[in-house]
Amino acid sequence: MNPIGTTRQDLLQAFDTLLQPERFKDYGPNGLQVEGRAQIRKIVSGVTASRALIEAAIAAQADAIFVHHGRFWRGWDGRVTGWMKQRLALLLAHDINLFAYHLPLDAHPELGNNAQLAVQLGLKATARFGEQDLGFIGARADGGSFADAAALAGHVENVLNRRVVRVGREHLAIKTIAWCTGGAQGYFEAAIAAGADAFITGEISEPQAHYAREMGVAFIACGHHASERYGAPAVAAHVAAQLRLGHQFIDIDNPA
Description:
The protein is built from 10 helices and 13 strands. It is α/β, with parallel strands linked by helices and 256 residues long. The protein is elongated, with a radius of gyration of 19 Å.
């Protein structure tokens, strides 16, 4: 496709129309976080607006960056020093727009992080659960089940190409699976209440191991970054095709 280009405002409107950020109570601002040039021809997508991603976007001659983890969060120190100054200086010097969508990107039913992780893992959601309906629950898309938590964990490891942390539900079949990407370990109790045999997320905290053992529900932590690699490129590619823009996903390695 030969990119035609669009305006910054039309790109923002396209993202907002698709992701509907006004529906969410979030931890920071969704939408345009750093204003760059008015005309857009190429978007680079990534998970986090790190300096490495910004530098890669500059090298790729991007006009805009689209990420899940932006630069501004509620409760953060507002001073522009150190790493914050370095990242903002790069964006401003190269006149690059930064778009970031947090919970709206998790929640989108087809293109979001949860929906796209399900595609990768061969899962199909049948319902939502938890605060703001961010959690997804369903089963294998092929109608099958996993023999036990070890089998499910092995499947996740093979698909995501990384080790996972697995706790609970030894030697019991797993049919109903809940998932919520990133740092959603706090959704485990809601997943249990929703009837899950297993819960997949990015991170695990101390209480979840006890809940898993006591309730007989498997908890699988597959990495915050690893679980959220798929929503940003799916959304950016969709909008880029809609507006006839160039798009490139750049994955900055992160073991977390």
